[in-house]
Amino acid sequence: MTSDLVNLSGLELTDRTPVPRGIVEHLQRLILKGGLKAGQRLPSQRELAEQLGVSRPSVREALTVLETMGLVTVRVGSGMFVAKPDARRPLWRYSDRCTPADVYEARLGLEGYAARLAAARVDEAAKERLRRCTDAMHEALRASDVISLAVSDTEFHDMIFEFSGNPVLAAMYRPVREMLVESQRLPMAQLERLSETVREHEAILEGIVGQNPDMAEAAMQSHIRSAAGRFGITL
After folding, report:
1. Domain covering 19-87 assigned CATH 1.10.10.10 in the classification
2. Which of 36, 110, 196, 211 could pair covalently with 30 via S-S, beta carbons 3.0-4.6 A apart?
């Protein structure tokens, strides 16, 4: 079965961009701008590698990321297709250990309190780092760059644990970090609602920069509840 897609050439990579990430960014732009339409079948990995001028392992890794984000789906025996907006549901890789709801519940307490402590203890250098991170999120949103937005989102949450000033809290975070990061990315399959994520981080930033612990904690917990809601979970 021959792919009926537009030609996907035009991938541009810089020396600092890993090839799989460059492929993900290129394909997600095509999805967002309509070059790849919902329900369309992607070319085979071999065809994609030839069109983009990259290796098949890089294509395979990029497609795994897109599938995890819910932007593409696999139909057994038919291939890989661009997911329809109402069917974009990312994979949850930790189903043998817990549910996404379990993680969101834990985040309410863990990250809410980390934000409270950060607001009480943050210094000017830390405030500036958080501002730069939210600026990067705005820039990624304007560019419809989901990958960069997800990276900045993760950095923002990492910083809050760092700025909490509590080594025990930070140590509790490290073993479950990947699970928490995955939960942050689950709602990002709803591309039309990414602006909500950015606004919620601005509210958290306002509480921390203003050194208002109550506001910071409430904003963080509101963000987590909203993120869960975007994935269909009510806390």
Report:
1. yes
2. 36
